[in-house]
Structure formats: structure tokens, C-alpha cells
């Protein structure tokens, strides 16, 4: 009998099932198209004895030990509800369903509430690391009843990535907590990627560097404080030659980026929670703008192409700017996690989140270990104010300012870096400018304002 089951043998599902089998667990698998299951098991090689391929849901359910644990790896959205509706009547009340797709955490909260009302267990877990991660060690962000997590924690920690000896699999909290943490991971992923794309643009258009030279810069940065999976793969992408044209691959890829929605969900939730996530919002907007190809062509025809050459060598400043931008962006991400934790009653373990992101996931980086330490030492503080990161920002914000201002003066768009800089400057301005906003609001709507020198609500002389 299988110790666990998995439904959905798409890229991620197949990789996760292989990983589970590889770690010594017997696993039953099911896919709606039976030939996919047959091919998967037939191609499993040494892992085949650990896999039970099944052709119907009844057969699948019968192949799993009771009380059952079943991972759903079907496309996020309606397909998850449909699969739950099909499976539940075949299951016992103590059988655990685990949605491991990229679910919207609001859906996970609803499904968790429905499961609770029926008295059946349900988990929503975020899994990051792409196909390679799923196969050899993803980062796993668990959510749902802790008792459900405890039942499968031995399997999830066995298949997870490791940072040293520590498995990157953690229970984050009730209902949608795991999927929310995964969503914020993806929002940060969008901002990290966008800021890297912005410095790539400055190197390409401002400094006139070719893809090979840019690849060399990313390789060098990957040996320093920016060391991370995304910097590493950016270097690899830049170094790749297109077999068809013989040109650098980057030079033949259309500049229009896709998105499945998780970055947008992060921005939407940040706005709902009044938790500033401006670098992430800028990154989502940049993806949206990237797909407006025709409109951008029209703009270039009317105004002339924006990017102009940059004087001087600012490559080292670009590295420092990325560092500063990244710290500001993560400060926003962890601020958003803290806000959601209060709003949804989760008690999210912020240092634990930084720890779980240290290996396996797409945003894994050397810096996350320092973030885990900072979030432990100063748990209630903005990450930018933790002594280690405050020092890093003191050392690097000048470069961020130089890069953002140079980009603005030379027409090289840098929206996420610009958002990060504006956030940093705003957060070190004790006397801001919202006094003007309050004056305006009171003038046109008598909304009232507070005074610096008195308590209570006040109005301007226009109040009559
Ligand atoms: C991961 C990735 C993964 C996937 C997203 C991104 O953590 O493994 O984030 O979940 O790549 O779907 O998708 P989009 O860029 O299409 O939104």
C-alpha cells in the first residue's frame, strides 16, 4: 500500500511524485489522462517499484494506506475545487487533502473553512523551486490545521531542500497562511527579477555592453553579497547563444513577459492591508507594460527612443544599487507578511519564513540567512532598521540614488529601483508632506486634521 497519493502529473506534480518516491516513500499517482500516468510510471526507472500508477480515482484511493494523505497538483483555481468535489465522496472523514498548487490564499481560506465545516482535514502548501526544485528539493510553506501538517511533516521535510542540515519546510499557520507566504515569495520574485532586468537594461542600452559582457558581470556579482539563484540564472541566460540564429539568446527573446497572477495577488493584498509594497507593485506594472508592444512602438515613433548612453562606468554602482533595492523590497515583503499575520490571525514566523526561503526556492540567496538573523534579533522592526541591513543601506543607498537618477536622466526605465529608493527616502523622513494632503482634504471636504501643537481634530479657517 502507498503511504501517500498524488493527483496531477503535470511538470510539477511528476517531479514532486518522483522526489517522494526517491526519498523512499511508496506513492500512488493519478492523472485525469491515463496515458500520462502510464508513461510516467513506465519512464520512472529505478523509482518504479515505489510508484503505483492508477487509472481511476477509485483505484487510486484504494491504493493508499488509511488514514490517507493526498497531494493535489492540479492547476490552481476551479480545477482544485472540482477535484476536491470528486475525491471527497470516495474518502474517509480523517483523510487529508493537501493542495500544493499556486492557490490564491483566499481560495485556500475558503476551502479550509469548508473542510472544517465538514469535519475533514485540509492543508494548503506553497511549493517553490520550479521543476528542478520539486524533483530534488523545493522550499515548502505549509498552511492549515497543525495536526494535518504533523501527519505529513516527515514526508515534506524529507523531500524539501536543505540549508545545511535544516530542511526548508515549515508550517506557517492556519488555513491560507502557507499559500499567502508563497504568494509574497512570488511578489518578491517579481521585484527581484524586475530590478535585475532594470540593471541589465542599463548595461545593454546605457553602457552598450553585449550579452557576453553582461553575463560576466552577473557571474562576478554571484560571488559577492548579491549571490542568489536569480543572479546566477541571469548570468546563464545572458551567456546563452541561440542555436537558430547564432546570436545571444537574450537578443532574440521578445521583450514581453508573461505572468500567472501571483505577483498581482501580492500587490492587491498589499493595497488591501495598507502595507506598502511599492517595489513589487512597480514590478507587476512593468510586466503589464511589457506586453503593450504596439503602444510602446507608437510612443517611440512619436517621442524617439528613450534609452540614451550613460557616461562613465557605473557597473559597480549597479551592484550596490541592486543590493539596496533588494533590502528595501524585502523590508516591504516582510512588512506585508507582518500585516497579514495580524489581519488573518496567523502569527506568521517571520524568521522562519526567511529560513525556509534560504534554499530550494526561486528567491533563495545568501542574504536570506542574514535576514533570518535580523528578524530574530529585531522582530518588530522594519528590516531596513536592523543594524546589519541599516549598515548595508548606509553603504549602498548612494549608489541606488546615482543609478536611479542616471537612469532617469538618460531615459533608461528603472521603475522598481526607483520605487525602492522612494520608499527608503520616505522611511527616513520624520516630517513628511501629508500635512498638505490633510490641508487639502479639510479644505474641500472638512475632513479635519490633527495639529502638532494640540490634541483633537481641527479645521482650517475655511470651515466657517
Ligand atoms: C516558484 C515560482 C513558480 C512559478 C510561478 C511564476 O516559486 O517555483 O514562483 O511558482 O514560476 O508560477 O509565475 P509567473 O511569472 O508566470 O507569474
Can you tell me about this structure?
The chain has 464 residues and is an alpha/beta fold. The chain has three domains: 4-175, Rossmann fold, CATH 3.40.50.720; 183-426, N-(1-d-carboxylethyl)-l-norvaline Dehydrogenase, domain 2; 434-463, Up-down Bundle (Single alpha-helices involved in coiled-coils or other helix-helix interfaces), CATH 1.20.5.320. The chain is 55% helix and 11% strand. It has 19 helices and twelve strands. An eight-stranded mixed beta sheet has the order 3-2-1-4-5-6-7-10, sandwiched between helices. Strands 8-9 form a two-stranded antiparallel sheet. A two-stranded antiparallel sheet has the order 11-12.
Helical run tally: 19
* Beta-strand content bin: 5-15%
Which molecules are bound in this entry?
6-phosphogluconic acid
Mean pLDDT: 97
Indicate the CATH class of the largest domain: Mainly Alpha
> The biggest beta sheet, please?
8 strands, mixed
The backbone outline, from C-alpha atoms, is globular
Radius of gyration from the alpha-carbon trace, in angstroms = 25 Å
The total strand number stands at: 12
Number of domains: 3
CATH level 4 superfamily of the largest domain: N-(1-d-carboxylethyl)-l-norvaline Dehydrogenase, domain 2
Biggest sheet: strand arrangement = 3-2-1-4-5-6-7-10
Cα-to-Cα separation, first versus last residue: 81 Å
Helix content: 40-55%
By CATH, the topology of the largest domain is N-(1-d-carboxylethyl)-l-norvaline Dehydrogenase, domain 2
- Which second-level CATH architecture of the largest domain applies? Orthogonal Bundle
Amino acid at each position: 500500500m502507498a503511504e501517500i497519493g498524488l493527483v496531477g502529473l503535470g511538470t510539477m506534480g511528476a517531479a514532486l511524485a518522483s522526489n517522494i518516491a526517491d526519498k523512499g516513500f511508496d506513492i500512488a499517482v493519478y492523472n485525469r489522462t491515463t496515458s500520462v500516468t502510464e508513461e510516467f510510471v513506465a519512464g520512472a526507472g529505478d523509482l518504479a517499484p515505489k510508484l503505483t500508477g492508477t487509472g481511476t480515482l477509485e483505484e487510486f484511493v484504494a491504493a493508499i494506506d488509511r488514514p490517507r494523505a493526498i497531494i493535489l497538483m492540479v492547476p490552481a483555481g476551479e480545477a482544485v475545487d472540482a477535484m476536491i468535489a470528486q475525491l471527497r465522496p470516495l474518502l474517509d472523514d480523517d483523510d487529508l487533502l493537501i493542495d500544493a498548487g499556486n492557490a490564491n490564499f483566499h481560495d485556500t481560506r475558503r476551502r479550509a473553512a469548508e473542510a472544517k465545516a465538514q469535519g475533514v482535514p485540509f492543508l494548503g502548501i506553497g511549493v517553490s523551486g520550479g521543476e528542478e526544485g520539486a524533483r530534488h528539493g523545493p522550499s515548502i510553506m505549509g498552511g492549515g490545521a497543525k495536526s494535518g501538517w504533523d501527519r505529513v511533516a516527515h514526508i515534506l521535510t524529507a523531500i524539501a531542500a536543505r540549508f545545511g542540515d535544516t530542511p526548508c519546510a515549515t508550517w506557517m499557520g492556519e488555513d491560507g497562511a502557507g499559500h499567502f507566504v508563497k504568494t509574497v515569495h512570488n511578489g518578491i520574485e517579481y521585484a527581484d527579477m524586475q530590478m535585475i532586468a532594470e540593471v541589465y537594461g542599463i548595461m545593454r542600452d546605457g553602457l552598450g555592453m553585449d550579452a557576453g559582457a553582461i553575463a560576466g558581470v552577473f557571474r562576478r556579482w554571484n560571488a559577492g553579497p548579491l549571490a542568489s539563484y536569480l543572479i546566477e540564472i541571469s548570468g546563464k541566460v545572458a551567456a546563452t547563444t541561440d542555436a537558430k540564429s547564432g546570436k545571444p539568446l537574450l537578443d532574440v527573446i521578445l521583450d514581453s513577459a508573461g505572468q500567472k497572477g501571483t505577483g498581482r495577488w501580492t500587490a492587491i493584498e498589499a493595497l488591501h492591508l495598507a502595507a506598502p509594497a511599492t517595489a513589487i507593485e512597480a514590478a507587476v506594472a512593468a510586466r503589464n507594460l511589457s506586453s503593450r508592444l504596439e503602444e510602446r512602438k507608437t510612443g517611440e515613433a512619436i517621442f524617439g527612443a528613450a534609452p540614451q548612453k550613460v557616461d562613465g562606468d557605473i557597473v559597480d554602482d549597479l551592484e550596490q544599487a541592486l543590493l539596496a533595492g533588494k533590502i528595501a523590497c524585502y523590508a516591504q515583503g516582510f512588512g506585508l507578511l507582518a500585516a497579514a499575520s495580524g489581519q488573518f490571525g496567523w502569527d506568521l514566523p517571520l524568521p522562519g519564513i526567511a529560513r525556509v526561503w534560504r534554499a530550494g526556492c526561486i528567491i533563495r540567496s545568501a542574504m536570506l540567512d542574514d535576514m533570518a538573523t535580523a528578524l530574530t534579533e529585531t522582530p518588530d522592526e522594519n528590516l531596513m532598521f536592523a543594524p546589519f541591513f541599516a549598515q548595508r543601506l548606509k553603504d549602498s543607498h548612494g549608489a541606488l540614488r546615482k543609478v536611479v537618477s542616471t537612469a532617469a536622466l538618460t531615459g533608461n526605465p528603472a521603475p522598481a529601483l526607483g520605487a525602492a529608493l522612494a520608499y527608503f527616502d520616505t522611511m527616513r523622513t520624520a516630517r513628511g508632506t501629508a500635512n498638505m494632503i490633510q490641508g487639502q482634504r479639510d479644505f474641500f471636504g472638512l475632513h479635519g486634521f490633527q495639529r502638532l501643537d494640540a490634541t483633537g481634530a481641527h479645521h482650517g479657517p475655511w470651515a466657517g
